[in-house]
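Suppose a colleague, Dr. K., hands you the sequence of a protein chain of 300 amino acids and asks what its three-dimensional shape might be. Before reaching for any lab equipment, you can write down a predicted structure in token form. Begin with the sequence itself:
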Amino acid sequence: MELLQDVDAHLLKLPWQTLHIGDCSFFTKVNFTDSSYCVLVSDLRGAWCEEAAADVIQERSKELNKRLKAPISSFLSHLSQRIRPLLDSKERTPNTLSCTRTQGTLMLHVKSQLCGLPFYWDFHCKEASVSTVCRHFLQPLIAMTKALDSQCQELCTLLRRKDEEILDYQEGGAVLSRDRLKTETFDENSFFKSFMSKNIPEQSAPSGLSERLQQLYSDVIVMQEQQEPESAGAGDGARPGSEQSLEGNSRMTDPAQQDVDDGQTQKPPQEPPDDVLTLTQRPSVVVSKAKKRKAKGLFK
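The predicted structure, expressed as tokens, is then:
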């Protein structure tokens, strides 16, 4: 399923938030308006999305809530009030939300009350397209990984310089006043081995993004949006130039092709300049041929 361009652009600016439904955890992006909504869900094994307009919401509300008659904005406002508090919450709500998976579809079921009457809603999320997954997941996460790796390298360099500074102080006779402040010399390889063994989780289920990572995700999206118009403008500017050069070359060759004498095209002689001579371009040497002599016999 491919989202509309305007909806996708707005959804792209939203950070990923976690949603716990029963024993399942999802990365989720949700956007509600007065007449529509858009949901993007992923469990790192698949991605599903749904974009519903006013007509779809009206028809589905009649099927699920026959006793309720209210404006679409009221339904969407109620759904937003039920869904948003659950985002980034560690509490699991099996009674309010549930999910059902089928081939290529993820159904999110909402059960609550509106105006004292039971209210039901189903999100019909279909498999998201590859381009949607790349825009919302792959490209931003790769950019975030590169940024964090650069930051890590700078911190490692700073730690090595700090060790050299401490060593210089010690060689000058400086002594720590408190032994608890003493640290070991930083070893990058041993640090990363210890970090990988202690902090890399074994489970692949989504555990949520910290506020710092969510802010980094938003910053990466803003930078990518700023770079897209520049790259598009550079691409558009290069095309007219190439076409113009092709037209210029054709104009230069047209007069030569039109000058015809006795069925042959006249081409001006091309000679290399006198001051530029390569190994294969030697000055021409005029060689005079010897005249043939008549053979003279011994007897005339």
